Fold these 2 entries.
Entry 1:
Amino acid sequence: MAISQRFCTNHPERPAIGICVMTRKPICGECSTRYEGVNYSREGLKLLQRQRASAKPRKRKLLVPLLAWVVSPALLYLMYLGYMTTADALMRLLHGES
Amino acid sequence: MDFSEKNAGDLGSLADAGGPCIAPLDAAAEYLRRRMDRVLPLYVLAMAPHAVVAVLLIDAIVAERRSNAETYCIFLVIATLWRWVWLARLQQNVQADLSARQRGPFWKRTASILMVRLFSNFAITWGSLAAGVPAFYGLYVGTFAAPLLLESDEPTITRVGQSLSWIQNSGKRLFRVSIAMTAITILLTAAIFLGQAALAGTVLPSLLGVDGADLNVTIDSWAWRMRLFYLIFLVIDAFWTVAGVFLYYDSQSRRLATDLRVRLQGMMEVQP
């Protein structure tokens, strides 16, 4: 690929500061819009908008959050158990078996 | 000086600019230096209950009071949940500064952040008994939880999946970061213990003429040593909390190819 890719696609005289995540074109600061932590060019934003508009509304998955809420008390207990095991080990280390 | 307006560009670009693996750590240290006033109050709020319970637990361990230790371990679980909530708030402030944007809604994502932290904590503690890999992923998913979930409204499971792919992609780099953090911790621990020994053994008796006998009784005790270890944990934890946001953007930009340096390197490699 040509070295000219270091420069903005729309402004060849300006150095590029990033790559549009949709169009994969190098873009300068003026052409770049940061959205959700990612660089987009103007065309890239339009593509994203079109993609999102055409996307069907997703069905909300309930199983995973439900499972997470059910498992979390067990994880809290394991956390307590972890602290207690460490405290026990330290007591044994400092005072020997008793 | 308003950091978000004047300096966010500098640090934001540093976080995205690739370079050595410790570049995000450097940026985090610089952020801490400039914005300690923004970090410290929230960090104290997050850690105050945790520190109180930890000191009580240390006393119970040293005095071998097992029933007290059991009670304090329950309090420590509650204090840890409190700590996670306020550290997430602290990370949200850093994230807002870096992206030069207003803070978004926090409380509606708090339960998800806690859930991710809980699972990652499980991976770090119990997962590490099986192998080092779950602990590694758990450490970084837990560290990234707040910036990850506060950046987008996508479902938690989708975001966690994305973050795992970023961590996988930057695996070597993040592993080197872990090594660097371990080295910093060891150096800090050695410096504190050597400094303390020099103070009690040489400076106080020879230069100031103070009898260090009572002091030696204190610093030779396990209660004192464990408190010092906790103090070192606090310093490293405060730094890691801030560095986590920088590492998050670093890993994200590498995976999504928004890091120009890496992209250009790739282009040059395929050039005939």
Note: Chain B touches chain A at residues 13, 16, 57, 60-62, 64, 66, 69-70, 73-74, 76-77, 80, 99, 115, 118-119, 121-122, 125-126, 151-152, 155-157, 222, 226, 249, 252-253, 256-258, 260, 263-264, 267, 270-271 (CB under 8 Å).
Entry 2:
Amino acid sequence: MSTVLQKCLDITPNGVIRPWSLQDYRLIRVQPWWPELRATTSWLRLWADWPTLQPQREYAPDDPRSGGYGNLLAFDEQIKLAVADGLNVILLPYRYPLWANGTGKLSFNSDANLFYLPQDRVSFATFQRYLNAIGTPREAAEKERVRGAEKSREYNTPASHGEDSLWAGYVDFLWQRYVVQAPEHGEVAAFEVVNEPNGQLWPQRGPSGDQSSWAGRFSPVGSDLVIHKVVAEMMATLDAIADHHGQTMLCLAPSTSDADSAQPRITSNITPTSYSANPGTFVDELLDELDRIGFRGGPRWAWSFHNYNDYELNQHRVEFLQDHIGKRWGGRRLNGVAELWCTEGGCRLTRVRQRFGQNLSDEQVLNQQAEVIKEALHRHHWPEGEGAGVTMLTQYTLAADPRFDAGLLDPGYAHRPAFDAWCGVRERGAQGENDPVEMPAPSDLSSLSAH
Amino acid sequence: MSGVTRRQLLLRGGGVTIVLFAAGAGPVLAQELAADPATLTAARRATALSLLAGIAADPGSDLTPGAVELVAVDFADGYAAAPADMRAFADATLDRLDSEAGFAALSPDDSLAVLRTWSVAGRPDGTTGDPRRTLAASALTLAGLAAGEDELRQVGYTLQPA
């Protein structure tokens, strides 16, 4: 029996955006409780936030004149220390500087920003409240509500992610620094192409078929999904970068959100499931696009996804995902199905209340969170059903995030029962079905640079 | 709460509330608020307001000065709905902001200046960090409590270099 379960900790982008925050690995690893967690966790997911590491277009991230140079050095050290501690690091390029996606001309507090594709950034309900408040005492407040609720400019996809794109230059910089030049700057074990493209990035879809009113523009009717093409292009570009450098690095994609949304202009559900009245087509259309562009995957690639609903609510959405991936995916396989790397998950306290009762005390919620974590980990230890093909589960956040509280610890590092639950489940090693395969020859990507 | 709801009280603004307490005009109200662990004290509310105003003073941040009072009300609501350990973190962070820099009394520009100074205190690299960096980062993270749960898990408030 090839039971596999590796465990990963995601410490959020804060460690690079705000060095020495409580999400900085250098602080985490010196805490008295760290050895207990490390003993049963062998992967660490780190976010290479592009706006932080290259705030000015004219300076490469490793140029000492760059405003992000100090953050880069801090990031280097976190990677080096993680590797020294025996962890495998998953590196993730994240977000876009405003100079790279063209939104720099839209200042946050301008009407130009507020009215820039709101249909792709905020719910119609929120926007309509503002429209209805125009000319009333509520107008200013509702306007601020829209402003605060819109997806940030840093998640707007630029026109291209091809081999000559700015994005390719940034990813190539990361590859050179943390793969080619490793271990000087720290060595990563895997690259993940993107984070939750079907949720965070915008636009998800092309224009609505009805442009006659705001209600029409917010409608998905007559629009086509577009975000899957962006992701397919990202994957092809990362594959070309890997070829170019001739490295056998594990590459992960598409890192889908498992959000269950009734607003397809904001979030694209990944597949139909029995849990939702909102069938999604993201996975099917991504696979179609990968076929169309000739992306073959191969042993370098494994499918990544996020599984909060399965984890928190004892659901089996991963089995619907496997049904849709089927044999169409040309990446790694395990247990006779696609090898899946779950790169985010966890149990929010709000979901504990949703599942077990709104009247639970705080103490009961924290105890129940621990039980859910144990349940989720043990369910995936079995190489059938929801465990089939799943080679890794990830805990999103160690110190709780006030905006998404799934922490193993409270936001100030104080103990929660969830910590013991996570640490109490051992890993089992990877026993994939992949034979060693020679990697493709490097191709010419000489146009790539970080500028 | 004797004809005044918590939300109505908060909507009047932290400053007004502080004046009420200082003048001894609301001792009963003060006792009721003090007895409710899910209610921000007036002092912490004032510190939170100053923190948010400081973030909004940065033209590069995703918070406008016009939204500060609105977001301060949301912050208090988020605090009230948070579990006890989250509230304890908020209390400790707000108290440290005030004890180390008198945050509650700072103007928005001065609040921003302190946050920026702390955010670059010491060296970003190295093996030991400056605790002021950690405090500034915790304050920015805590400010996100106002937004409620974010399914998208976007990056919260960040500051541009001075």
Note: Chain A touches chain B through 57 residues (CB under 8 Å).
